[in-house]
Amino acid sequence: MGMRSALMAELKRSLREGGYTYADVARQLRLSLASVKRLFASENLSLERFDRICELIGTDFASLADRAREPRGAERPLTLEQERAIVADPGLFLITWLLLSRTPFQDMVRNYRLSAAQVQRYLIRLDRLKVIELQPQNRVRLLISRRFSWRPGGPVQRFLHEKLLREFLTGAFAAPEEVFFFHGDALSEGARAQLKRILQLCARDSLELIERDQALAQPRQGTAFLLAMRPWEYSGFVQLRRK
Prior knowledge:
Shape: globular
Number of strands: 4
CATH superfamily of the domain at 3-68: lambda repressor-like DNA-binding domains
CATH class of the domain at 3-68: Mainly Alpha
Strand order of the largest sheet: 1-2
Largest sheet: 2 strands, antiparallel
CATH architecture of the domain at 3-68: Orthogonal Bundle
Strand content: 5-15%
């Protein structure tokens, strides 16, 4: 698949995931619905129109292009064997975590008590586990998507709940740079699914979604969600940092 086709496929998927229709795109571009359908069918979108559609769905062209370059199947969860191997070794878990954050090789060595040779050995292990493709000069191509999720109830998710989240939620979120938000309300099924996709947005946007949903005459079910942020790093990683 060429880059243009990959971009269009990713744009269509992002529209579907966000619950947007071609009619929404038509309004954003100030075109007729038929014109929008022809543009998507011919894959003939100008950069300006691409940018305006990205604005509609809350992304940008660079992020869209980055996702379009991801390998097929990258959003599938890792196997149990892969996850078990990752959580069994604190160093391997750290390197995996850093790779998911797109941390460069030199920053791993500079910021943690790991030599270049140690980091390279971890990269080789992840390459053998088919989590990454290790390239010359320690460049890495992730074989998993930025949007992939750990296996529900799997080894990594259990570790996150037992260690990281428990530590993260300890203590009051009272400092000026911290925020803790909890809200519950009755939401329709469609709004709950949309809310799941936007949990990384601020609390204000989430409340606006609830207000819009309350105007709809649909069955509702009690729904609660948590948004939290604080300066924090897992203590297991801190122990590996250079003094």
